[in-house]
Structure formats: structure tokens, C-alpha cells
Write a structure and sequence with these properties.
elongated; 452 residues; 0% strand; mainly alpha; single chain
Length: 452
């Protein structure tokens, strides 16, 4: 919505009122602008120093001829970012909503990209940086526009293969992955991996590109393909640790978590256990502060041990994860807590139906209105259905179990062990209900989907 401006003479009451209104608008939005400026400053610091990081001798040789140009481009970026933010902060018609703020930012950023006759390297750097800011703000559609522009400019200027082109492909792939456009993300990230391999440099950039590609494959339920890439990434960080020491520890912990969660998705819980255990140990040693990395490692370990039948150890880990979420330091803690309650209910159902029923009811009370199509909601419905079968409330159980299977097949695919478990729950229902014609249909389906 555009604010109407009233032309007044200097010193008039209306002029004073407008100035007061402008100050009031700034006061209301001051925190948002300061956060945006701080984010820009942090990104600039990163941009101005990232090229100085330790690189292999081969990579340094590849980039030596462009170093002066890159340095000039990054200095120009600082001035261009500053002009964009100054134009927004000093505008008396500052936007009053996040959408308006983003629109004004992108308009002025587009002007700044062409201002002062920048070189192609400068244009690519600025467009890419703006895309990263928009991505961090959660405006991924707008971010994609600038990242695409940065990629096209880099391709035209540098040619390929080139480290800058590979980085732009990584950025485009990452934002497409976040937008759940996984097929397009796979194309971009496969190209990024290919670019880095063609450069002949087995550097950290290649490891990050492979990890991003693996994550996109997993999102398409192609876990076996992802596993191969994750194993390559782990081997790469093990080699890198010999030269960079403890700086590789965080990446190693991430690699172990990736492998543990992928083996878990494949239903290979024995192989998942050592990686999940290693990830948790490394995350606990990394910092005394409990953060999202520690939470994720605890949650993975709880799930793996639950599927291996280690009920007491798994319950303790699930409850520890719940305590962490209750401290309020983890994002989207409500959905995550509901997911834990559903899985904990499934774990406890064989020994304590009353507690399990209370937990799954609490879980669905959160999930059903907020995330009806979430994987956790499908699992919670399956757990509730199984509990109802145990209580011989068979008619009530049927719709929960059927809907759980329907959603899990969509989300996980027919090859998933979760799909087979959802089918088994329906078989158990119809066996208890003495409906052999329905039971036989699901027995046949389970046999059809059984792994070779």
C-alpha cells in the first residue's frame, strides 16, 4: 500500500506532523531495520574475507589471475549495499509490512546493481548477495530471481568451469531445495558438483556441493543414491582433518548425522547406530551450549534405539529432547515436541497404553490444525490407530490407520519401511476385527512391497 504524500511549505504544521509521523514509523520499525542492517554487515564481512580462506595450491593458482578483480568487486559491493540500505532507511515512505520492505529493498537493489557502471563480476557478486539476504529473510521466490541473475552473469563473465560459477549453482540449488522444487535443485547441484570436479580441486567446496546434492536426493526418497554421496563426503572430511585439524570436527559430526539419518530412512538401524552415536558424542563435546545440532543428534539417537528395541535408552533420549524443546531455544519447538510425543507414544504403547494415549492425543492436538500433511501427523495417526486396536476400538481405529497409510505412501514412497509398518497395522486391525477379505488385500500389498 503506497502512502500518500502531502506537499507543504517548510515549517508548516503539516510539515511538522509529517516529520513526526516519519519518526514514529522509524521507531516502530527500528528493530527490523537494525536487524536487516546487521545482517547486511555480517554478509559483507563474510564476502570480503571468504576469498582469503585457506585453499589448496591448485585452487589458488586457478584464481590468482582474478584475485585483483575479485577484491575490487567486493569493495564495490560494500558501497552498493550501503547505498541500498541508506535509500531505504532515509525514505520517508518506509514500508510498514515485511512484504513492502522486501519489495522496496528489491527495487532499490535492482537499481544499485546497474548504478555506477559496475563490472560483470561486481554485478554477479551484488545480485548473489542480495539473493542470500532475501533467502535468510524467508523470501525465497524473490531470492531465486537474484540468484538466477547472479548465475547468468557469472556464466557469461567467467565461463565454465569456474569456482564462482560453481558457487552460484550451489546457491540456486539450495534455495530451490528450500522451495521443495527438488528436481530443479538436483539439476543445479549436479552441475555444481560437475564444475568443481572439472576444476580438478578436491576442496571443501566440492564436499559441500555433494552434501547439498545428497540432501536433495533424500527429499525425493532416493536414499541409496544419497548414501553414496554422504559416504564420499565423510571420507573427504576425514582426509581434510589431517590438514585443518579441529576445524573439520563440526563437518565430521554433520557427516555422521547425515549417514545415521540416511541409514535410518533405509531401515538399516544397525548401521545407523554407530553414526548416530558418533554424531551425538561430537556435538556434546563441541560446545557446552545445547543448540539445534545437539537436539537433532539426541532425537536421531532416540529414534534409532527405539527401532532396535532398546526401550529404556530410547525413552530417556526422547525425554531429554523434550526437555531441550521446553527450554524454548529451538525453532519450531511446538511441531518438534508433538513429533517426539507421537514417537514416544508408539514406544510406550506395549507397556503403558494410558500414557501412550495421552501423549498421542497431545501430539495430534498440535499437529492436526497446524501441520495436517506433515510426516509427523501421519505417524501420530498410525500410533493412535494401533492404540485403538489394542483397546479393541476397531471401528474408530480404521479411519486413522487408512489415512496414515495414505499419507505415508505419498510422503515416503512404497519402498519405505514406514509404509510397510503402516500396512501391517491395517493387517492387525482386520485380523482383530475378523474381516479376512480386507485383511487379505493388505497382506497381498505388503508382500508386493517387500524388499527383494
Amino acid at each position: 500500500m503506497t502512502t500518500q504524500r502531502v506537499e507543504t511549505s517548510p515549517g508548516s504544521p503539516a510539515d511538522g506532523s509529517a516529520a513526526a509521523s516519519s519518526r514514529s514509523r522509524w521507531k516502530r520499525n527500528e528493530r527490523r531495520y537494525r536487524i536487516a542492517i546487521a545482517a547486511l554487515a555480517a554478509l559483507l564481512i563474510f564476502a570480503l574475507t571468504s576469498w582469503q580462506r585457506e585453499r589448496s595450491r591448485h585452487e589458488l593458482e586457478l584464481e590468482l589471475s582474478a584475485s585483483q578483480q575479485r577484491d575490487a568487486a567486493q569493495r564495490e559491493m560494500a558501497g552498493l549495499y550501503a547505498r541500498v540500505m541508506r535509500a531505504i532507511v532515509e525514505d520517508p515512505n518506509r514500508p510498514q509490512s515485511p512484504e513492502e520492505a522486501v519489495q522496496q529493498f528489491t527495487d532499490k537493489a535492482t537499481e544499485a546493481i546497474s548504478a555506477g557502471d559496475p563490472t560483470p563480476a561486481e554485478q554477479a557478486a551484488l545480485a548473489g548477495g542480495i539473493g542470500e539476504i532475501l533467502r535468510e529473510m524467508g523470501f525465497r521466490s524473490e531470492a531465486t530471481v537474484f540468484m538466477d541473475q547472479a548465475l547468468r552473469t557469472a556464466l557469461a563473465h567467467y565461463g565454465q568451469p569456474h569456482p564462482e560459477v560453481a558457487q552460484r549453482l550451489d546457491n540456486v540449488g539450495a534455495v530451490l531445495h528450500e522451495r521443495e522444487e527438488h528436481a530443479q535443485a538436483e539439476v543445479a547441484l549436479t552441475a555444481a558438483v560437475s564444475q568443481r570436479q572439472d576444476l580438478g580441486v578436491a576442496d571443501r567446496g566440492l564436499l559441500h556441493s555433494k552434501r547439498s546434492l545428497a540432501a536433495t536426493l533424500r527429499s525425493q526418497n532416493r536414499h541409496a543414491e544419497a548414501l553414496e554421496l554422504y559416504l564420499e563426503v565423510l571420507a573427504g572430511w576425514v582426509r581434510a582433518k589431517g590438514s585443518i585439524g579441529r576445524a573439520a570436527d563440526s563437518e565430521l559430526a554433520t557427516s555422521h548425522w547425515d549417514l545415521g539419518s540416511t541409514y535410518y530412512a533405509l531401515g538399516d538401524f544397525d548401521s545407523a547406530e554407530p553414526h548416530a552415536s558418533q554424531a551425538l558424542e561430537m556435538r556434546r563435546n563441541e560446545s557446552p551450549r545445547v543448540d539445534d545440532h545437539v537436539y537433532k543428534a539426541i532425537f536421531l539417537m532416540a529414534r534409532v534405539r527405539a527401532e532396535r528395541g532398546l526401550r529404556p535408552e530410547s525413552e530417556a533420549l526422547y525425554r531429554e529432547a523434550l526437555r531441550i524443546l521446553n527450554q524454548g531455544e529451538i525453532s519450531r519447538s511446538g511441531i518438534k515436541a508433538a513429533r517426539i510425543k507421537a514417537e514416544l507414544a508408539g514406544l510406550l504403547a506395549p507397556v503403558n497404553l494410558e500414557t501412550a494415549r495421552r501423549l498421542v492425543d497431545e501430539s495430534l492436538k498440535t499437529l492436526s490444525p497446524r501441520a495436517p500433511n506433515h510426516a509427523a501427523t501421519a505417524e501420530a495417526m498410525g500410533v493412535l490407530g494401533a492404540i485403538l486396536v489394542e483397546n479393541y476400538e476397531l471401528e474408530q481405529a480404521e479411519p486413522y490407520l487408512r489415512e496414515s497409510l495414505r499419507q505415508i505412501r505419498i510422503q515416503r514412497g512404497d519402498a519405505s519401511w514406514r509404509t510397510r509398518r503402516a500396512i501391517q497395522r491395517l493387517i492387525d486391525l482386520y485380523e482383530a476385527w475378523e474381516k479376512p477379505e480386507k485383511q487379505s488385500r493388505y497382506v497381498a500389498l505388503l508382500a508386493e512391497l517387500a524388499p527383494p
